[in-house]
Amino acid sequence: MRSAVWAGLALLLLTARPPESSESRQERAGTPRELVVLVHGMGRTTCSMAPVRRALETAGYEVLNHGYHSRRMTVAEAGSELAEAVATVSLRPEITRVHFVGHSLGNIVIRWVLANAPPARLGRVVMLAPPNQGARLADRFAGWLSWLSQPLPDLTTASGSAARALATPTGVEIGIIAGSYDHTVRLEETYLDGQKERAVVPCGHTFIMRKTRVHQLTLRFLRDGTFDEAIAPPTPAPVRPALVSGAEPL
């Protein structure tokens, strides 16, 4: 029994990593980095964006996976909170660019930041299944479920909703990835004035962020500003009516 204990302690000592020196931490902190801010959709958490985070970190990006109370905040409230979180990180001298990747409602929150408090070193934006024109599904439920999900009125097709009214600043490269089987946000509802490109992938709304193809397209657009494989080879990686009964979360 004692020999097994000593053997275990010896193995632990051999495999333990030495503590990182202050010089090493400073050198790593001073390395120029591009930051990607992730913003999840309604009723979700940062866990839903974890597959995107892993793909981005593998490609060498620094990632801020932002969490917020997506059912208890309006778009303006969530956007203001996001802007503060981004400002805290983006002011670090080693951060050279700040990109955004959002899912569903998260994209409207990102648009609020772009319109009201964009970071100084703004990079590119990738939107996954964004209800940029509002969603007819939100129209159905906003009148009687807003007490449960406060952002719903911001996602309707009404001309004054946040989804419809937020202006897109000029000069921002925006790529949209939509799902061909999305029953929550129709293909035509993802369109945004000023968008640079759009790609359509064979998937639905809720799990679009888990698709390897989506990760490849996201990395390509952040790097080169295009989804076009002919122009930018893929980075190596380690419209239907809304159905009330089968609707997925925004």
The largest β sheet comes out as:
6 strands, parallel
Helix content: 25-40%
**How are helices and strands ordered from N to C?**
HHEHEHEHEHHEEH
Strand proportion:
15-25%
- What would the average pLDDT be, to the nearest integer? 84
Can you list the strand order of the major beta sheet?
A: 2-1-3-4-5-6
CATH class term: Alpha Beta
Give an overview of the whole structure.
With 250 residues, the protein is α/β, with parallel strands linked by helices. The chain has a single domain, classed as Alpha/Beta hydrolase fold, catalytic domain (Rossmann fold), CATH 3.40.50. It is built from 8 helices and 6 strands; from the N terminus they run ααβαβαβαβααββα. It has helices spanning 2-15, 22-29, 50-58, 75-90, 105-116, 136-145, 162-165, 212-224; strands at residues 33-39, 62-66, 95-103, 122-128, 174-179, 197-201. It has a 6-stranded parallel β-sheet with strand order 2-1-3-4-5-6, sandwiched between helices. Strand 3 (95-103), helix 5 (105-116) and strand 4 (122-128) form a beta-alpha-beta unit. Helix 4 (75-90) crosses helix 5 (105-116). The longest helix has 16 residues, at 75-90. The N and C termini lie far apart (57 Å). The model is unreliable at 5-28 and 231-247 (pLDDT under 50).
